[in-house]
């Protein structure tokens, strides 16, 4: 009888210990979550790591690692964020949760501009039969990948697969149509010095290019006509051709600069005005 009582006592102690431990873990999880919700991200990281340390059964592995990753993301520590998202993925067998984590990793690669890695991840998801029902979401994020790759035309094509009137497609079309062709800018400058700068809206630079090329070309021709061959060659080679080539290079540079401005405008507009999912 005494032995039976001892067994009951031991069972009672063990049961209460487990309940108490579970209660403490839940309290720790709630506290860590509060830090995250209060945007105290580095405090949240500390508290979730403490939770993982005491969670011997790994009951909170998925959520804790996910919140740690999200906290690192908010702090701009993208490599650490990917590490903990990957650990979070190992803590679940739910396909929807796994897919969501993989998309989070895609978004971080977008933010740190590792675009080729982003496309690799999206292509892997697209080829995975487990995520056959997620094609639209994969297409959506592929569109974002093209945006971050500064290929607004291809981004528009991806969003059009979802909806021909998709808001992001319209924005991408607007940016793409406003962009300048570097090839066109260079060709115009080859034909008429300064024309490429006029095309990109840099009128003063265009006038200066045309003026300098015209001036030194005129002086070179005058030298040749006066049989001052050496003078003509020097002026043509070191002045006229130099300004002519510079005019072409400037046209390409200005086209790049204007396109960068348009890209930045597009990204800022999306950040401040677009209400759908964003990286």
Write up this protein.
- The protein has helices at residues 2-37, 41-54, 61-74, 78-90, 95-111, 115-127, 135-148, 152-162, 167-178, 182-191, 195-199, 203-225, 229-273.
- With 279 residues, the protein is mostly helical.
- It folds into 3 domains: 14-92, Alpha Horseshoe (Serine Threonine Protein Phosphatase 5, Tetratricopeptide repeat); 115-178, no CATH class; 182-269.
- The longest helix is centred in the C-terminal third of the chain and has 45 residues, at 229-273.
- The protein starts with a helix and ends in a 6-residue tail after the last helix.
SSE topology sketch:
Elements: H1 2-37, H2 41-54, H3 61-74, H4 78-90, H5 95-111, H6 115-127, H7 135-148, H8 152-162, H9 167-178, H10 182-191, H11 195-199, H12 203-225, H13 229-273
Helix pairs in contact: 1-2, 2-3, 3-4, 4-5, 5-6, 5-7, 6-7, 7-8, 8-9, 9-13, 10-13, 12-13
Count of individual domains: 3
What is the percentage of strand-forming residues?
under 5%
Rough outline: elongated
Taking all residues together, what is the mean pLDDT?
Answer: 85
Order of helices and strands: HHHHHHHHHHHHH
Number of strands: 0
Most strands sheet: none
Unreliable stretches (pLDDT < 50, length at least 5) are 11-20
Name the quaternary structure.
single chain
Structural class: mainly alpha
Helix share bin: over 70%
Number of distinct helices? 13
Query: What's the Cα radius of gyration?
Result: 31 Å
